[in-house]
Amino acid sequence: MIEKQNIQQIIRKVLDFSTADETEVILDFQTEALTRFANNAIHQNVAEESHSLQIRAIIGHKTGTATTNLFDDESLKRAAGTAVSIAQLQQDDPELLPLPEHQNYAELSEPYIQETLDFSPMERAERVRRIVEACDNQGLSAAGAFSTGGGTFAIANSKGVFACQSSSNAALSLTVQASDSSGWVEGVDKDVREIDVPGLTDIAIEKAVASQNPIDAEPGEYTVILEPAAVSTLIEFMSVLGFNAQRYQEGRSFLTGKLGTQIVGNNITLTDNAFDPRLNGFAFDFEGMPKQAVTLIEQGVASHLVHSRKTGQKADMQTTGHALPLSSGGGALPFHLILQGGNSSIEEMIASTDKGIYVTHFHYTNVVNPMEAIITGMTRDGTFLIENGKIAHGIKNLRFTESIVKALSHVELLSPTQTKCCGRALGCMLVPAMKISNFTFSSGTKF
Asked: Rounded to an integer, what is the distance from CA 135 to the centroid of its chain?
């Protein structure tokens, strides 16, 4: 991992080379190692290190960007010159903001664990061996990936901003397959030593065995019990579609005109908090502004949005420190979501259900209607029929088509335990399991 003093040295050179009125520098260093396995055998073991430097030059109301992965003086000077040349060719942007000045950042609780970065291919292979052995003993097939990695991200500018942070992450995704069923589980943590490989393997095996010989279930409205991974899909899509202040201001958010009103059940409280030690939080955003904890939904009421400097200025308020990179189209997103839990265990949820469906996780989920927060997707790797308060049988997978707002308005129970789950767009979040009534499954499958 690159040392902080080396990052500062690179940044100083770029700022010296740049002839722009204002200059912003973003450095990103990443390393990831991955062991992939299928059919009870490792078939891929790869490692990658990448580094990039982005220079943004501002001249008046014009801006230009150049990127390089070469850090010698000549390459840095050339990239700085390219950014300036691009800026000079642009038209004025009347909404372009000047770069921020020096900021102070809160200290985070140990976001970086060196042991995770030092975890060797042999150590990953040994964990996979234990998985394969457990599955092979029961005539099952294991597939998945075990990854370890981390990185350092820094942002600085010519007006005094300098923010730098390292992080680490380890993840195990495991699917155990029987002849006509499967079970899935995921474990993620910044500390690879906290991933309970034997425990996770047992869960996936149990689901695969229990869901054998699946039966058909008719589409329709059901009471559902969603494991945290399935809950995280709902929360991620809702947050992307709703809480970006830019979408709200442009009238593209399902929350437009509804801030301060009840949108979901009063047992739903959702926050974004980079400072929770259970998450790999970053203390700053892609503008170098300090992160703030934000309550998005409080007891069912849509309370706040997350802002960049630009959207904050339009709303006559300060940024919340959630700005996205300019290359993404701007705006802001909550990357450290926490959904408040309740007081009912999953076992109690099942026992209280006369007839329902138990869902491990969702797959291939997409947006149907963003203005109504309607999404569609498939159940996957462990879907069960609940009858008379007990898991009765594995069932073939179902497609759901549902409004997230409607679903979260019918939450009956929440578990007290929050599980760390990682999504496609917003990284990792902390969510409980939940029981929802009147959840719509629109069609069935043959598997």
From this structure: 29
Q: How many CA atoms lie within 13 A of 66 on its CB side?
A: 22
Inter-residue contact 203 to 382 (CB < 8 Å)? no
Per 3-state DSSP, the chain is made up of helix, strand and coil in percentages (nearest 5) of 25, 40, 35
Two tokens, residue 16 = 């010296």
Burial 146-159 (b: 16+ CB within 10 A, else e): bbbbbbbbbbbbbe
pLDDT of residue 423: 83
Check: CB of residue 153 under 8 Å from CB of residue 27.
Answer: yes
Residue 174 CB-density burial (10 A; 0-12 exposed, 13-18 middle, 19+ buried): buried
Distance of alpha carbon 230 from the chain centroid: 13
42's enclosing H/E stretch is strand 41-59
Buried b / exposed e along 246-278 (16+ C-beta atoms within 10 A): bbbbeeebbbeeeeeeebbbebbbbbbbbebeb
How is residue 100 annotated by DSSP? P
Question: What's domain 4-199's superfamily in CATH?
Answer: PmbA/TldD superfamily (3.30.2290.10)
Span 171-220, pLDDT tens digits: 999 999 999 999 999 999 999 999 999 999 999 999 999 999 999 999 99
pLDDT at 3: 84
What is the pLDDT at residue 4?
A: 85
With vertex at residue 55, the alpha carbon angle to CA 2 and CA 14, rounded to the nearest 5 degrees, is 65
pLDDT at 236: 97
What is the Cα–Cα distance from 235 to 241, expressed in whole angstroms? 10
Q: Which residues contact 168 (CB under 8 A, 6 or more apart)?
A: 111, 112, 113, 114, 116, 117, 148, 149, 150, 190, 191, 280
CB 155 within 8 A of CB 100: no
Please state, as a whole number, how many other Cβ atoms lie within 10 Å of the Cβ of residue 97: 14
Q: Spell out, as residue ranges, where the chain has pLDDT lower than 50.
A: none
DSSP-based three-state secondary structure for 318: coil
Helix (H) or strand (E) holding 236: helix 228-242
Do 399 and 374 meet the contact criterion of CB atoms below 8 Å apart? no
Phi, psi of 318 (to 5 degrees): -80, 155
Spell out the domain ranges in the chain: 4-199, 214-447
Q: For residue 173, which phi and psi values (nearest 5 degrees)?
A: -115, 125
